[in-house]
Task: structure prediction
Amino acid sequence: MNTKSSTPQRRTKPATRKPESKPEPNPALDLAQGLGHTFRNPHLLELALTHRSLSYETNPESLADPRSDNEQLEFLGDAILGLVIAESLYRRFPGSREGELTRLRASIVSRRHLGEMALRLDLGSRLLLGRGEERSGGRTKPALLSNALEAVIAALYLDAGLPTAAAFIDRHILAPALPSLQLALDPASTFSGAVGDHKSALQEHLQAAGLGQPQYILTGQSGPDHQKRFRVEVRVHQPSDPAGDSTTALASAEGTTKKEAQQEAARLALTQITGQIASRPARQPKPTGDSHAHSHSHSDDLSDTPT
Result:
């Protein structure tokens, strides 16, 4: 006869796994991956993203050391940017005089244009800021963004040389402005806005062609509140419709703000419109001086059509 033990059996609890700790976010590493460049000296990129306000709050003693923030890199990057843009304009527009090239370069390296290009690269979310600067909206300030972009250029230059820095400038700073440049330098164009102000350029071009003002339609939103993305479509009335009810889509684009999406959509539309301009032979220099060159506005204020 089998006897059952009266001693209760202990049940062993299954071993619980500790939740894996997520790695700390690394803004510099994230940016490097986005740039497609592996830094031999990652500290350079981290320094390029470091604003002076961080040292002021976390280590005031380091303020005496100019190597503790991105201001030295900003100084170097500004010089590199000016050189690369000047050479590129010289080679792309051999028929333009000094006055025209100078005005184009000033618009491309302006705080407004650089700030917008920094937003496209999402530099704002990767800046290393002090808490005070963070609370005051430092991640969206054009001055901080443009300075950080110049510092990134210097970091690329010091890490990999001028060709790498020049390729970055050409792709992320000059290329987005080319539709406005080509339109501004076209003899038949009436465009008088600042380079990089694609909305104004598109509006003036369409109005000169008798097509009226472009319409910017918000067609979608995605992402959480702190990382929203907006999709905008730019449309224009069909000239064959006297009532103005029919519209044609020119381009659509996304951005982290409605304004950014509108500018990008306008840029894409201009790229198509100015395709024929870009394929024309280079202009011959005008026989007269710079007094006949087109005038360009360098205002940092952009009128934003509400959606």
Q: What stands out?
A: Confidence is low (pLDDT under 50) at residues 276-307. Residues 197-281 form a domain with the Double Stranded RNA Binding Domain fold (CATH 3.30.160.20).
